[in-house]
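Obj.: predict assembly geometry.
Materials: sequence records (below).
Method: joint structure prediction, all chains together.
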Amino acid sequence: MPRSEKALIERIRLQARRFGPIVKTGIGDDCAVLRTPPDHEVLVTTDFSLEGIHFRREWHPPESVGHRCLTRGLSDIAAMGGDPVAAFLSLALPKAISQRWVDRFTRGLLDLAQAANVTLAGGDTAQSPSGIFADIIVLGFVPRGRAILRSTARPGDRICVTGELGSSAAALDQLLSSRKKKLTPQNYPRHFFPQPRVEVGRALREKKLASAMIDLSDGLSTDLRHICDESGVGAEIFSPALPVGADPDKNRTAALNFALHGGDDYELLFTAPAKKTLPSTIAGIQITEIGVVTRRKGIFLVNSSGRKTKLQAKGWQHFSQGR
Amino acid sequence: MPRSEKALIERIRLQARRFGPIVKTGIGDDCAVLRTPPDHEVLVTTDFSLEGIHFRREWHPPESVGHRCLTRGLSDIAAMGGDPVAAFLSLALPKAISQRWVDRFTRGLLDLAQAANVTLAGGDTAQSPSGIFADIIVLGFVPRGRAILRSTARPGDRICVTGELGSSAAALDQLLSSRKKKLTPQNYPRHFFPQPRVEVGRALREKKLASAMIDLSDGLSTDLRHICDESGVGAEIFSPALPVGADPDKNRTAALNFALHGGDDYELLFTAPAKKTLPSTIAGIQITEIGVVTRRKGIFLVNSSGRKTKLQAKGWQHFSQGR
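Observations (raw structure tokens):
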């Protein structure tokens, strides 16, 4: 690193200095100290962002890496219906990295933190033998007993998603293909600057509309399996109902595959009791009913003729492993 | 990795399954859900343990790596006078690592977690391009307003440490020297299995004996500077009073240097108001008065003749950088 760890911490500390009513003591002590609102529970999530696994420096501008890093954590809090309050960043950097890269990374992360009203309250720094290693921790609160779990879907519940699916994976496919080595981030915001659905998750919790919830980080086929496994249920997905991301370069079959198996969408997948009436949008984000929870185990894709085929979990293994 | 990430998570989940009264939902959902005791604040700390920076596979048995990884986090909670309750482990492993290494690492970490009554409640796993990258997050609670900060030392306060200093660095010096390539961990427990001083930290908080506190992870000369910088004070350290770790292979000067500048002791450094009476031991651990907080800035070492010399911060930069 072209700087001491102390100088790096001090720089991030100055950029991050904004304690809210929750964060009492942030960067600069052994621990951060956070006030807890009465009758609430604490939510904690941690997510790696590793160079070569979750991003590539030649593809992703530093602001995008910082933004995506925090999105991963915020999206997990959203998936519990919680309010994110504080983030912690552990960052290991190789010697050769420029201060400019680090500043742009931090800006991408802090811009999203500010938009989400989250304070960067601590973390750790180290020198990495090679490559950039970031671990983001996000802490949030949820009223006691009101966190929306993966394990509480019931047969008969409708299955819904926010927004649209597959656009992030479609962009990645272009990056991986020989045709393009670079994409303009502004043209592919869902890949480079995905928006965690914190407001939607909070509204679903407040209105008691969701019986179970997960965020779509690994792909629908994999994440739906987590809900089914934890809840001991099965599912049927109506493929014509899927809100497939627009991709002019791709045919419908390819786009459907991205929507079913592509990762990094950071939309919410939730189940809703049949008797609840769902709005078509929440906080400006489209809500789409895509299937139903079944007593029978197994996850099936139902096409427009009603034919059922087993849906394999082919979700995201991150792009180091090819796709 | 010779296993899928899912299998690894499932394996750790089975080994870790022990939810206490605090951890309501652990590994297996988007977030962990933790109950918060009323009138308490949350403490959060994160610490890297990186291969080649914080440990070496040829020197440190996997159990030691896991133990030291969690010690780093527990020690930060101890330094606030808090009660640790939950740990989160983000672990990136290279393809070539054996399941046996991972199991032994996990055992080292979970044995200490059990001893400290801490639940492993979540984390993340990924494949590392090279080397082992671990990030430990520890969450604890402290009664509202009672966290012992770095910034509250006052002129006239006595400066104290727990246990003895320098043994971990002395062991590392042997590893780094050409004389020895391996040390038997049982003979060097302070290096391979350092004990975080959680009970001492808690007792100091309960009895209101400490005005400021930090843990000695980077070395006395560096960590004392943190307290002085944050509190806006100076310090004088009486070198004859330092509880220097016994090291039969070293002369007094070398041992004193390890005690002043060596890292990874995980003892507590605290300041105590002059009017408070300190016991000679707390929870079986020796308490030693080593100096005094001064209004005059700067940190000075005072020898047995009363001569003062400026104490440079030459603490730990981790052994990747030499020492």
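Conclusions so far: The helical segments of chain A are 5-16, 62-78, 99-115, 167-176, 189-192, 198-206, 220-231, 252-261.
To do: check interface contacts against the pulldown list.
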